[in-house]
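=== RUN LOG ===
request id: a7f3
mode: sequence -> structure
chains: 1
length: 96
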Amino acid sequence: MTRLLFSIGNVFVSLLLGAILFGFVFLRHPETMGSILDWASSFKSWLINRGISTEYNNWIRVLLEERQLVFMGFTIIARIALSVLTYPFILWRERS
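=== RESULT ===
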């Protein structure tokens, strides 16, 4: 049961940390955020121009926005950092 709570907690905390990181970069480093958003836009264009059928391309155009890609990236970074930070605690807890 505690593993389930730790994994759910990891997801929620990483979403929160991703949002905080997004806001921090947005407010403190606007040039960096601009270049990250430009990269996300070029990634979306690359994804659309892969030769996927029009039906799927329309879904990508409608559902995937640049800010969502950037937020997903920050959330992944937060999940990795959180996992690295909590790994020693999990090892210690499983030894007990």
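=== NOTES ===
Residues 56 and 81 are 33 Å apart (CA to CA).
Helices lie at 2-28, 30-48, 54-63, 66-95.
=== END ===
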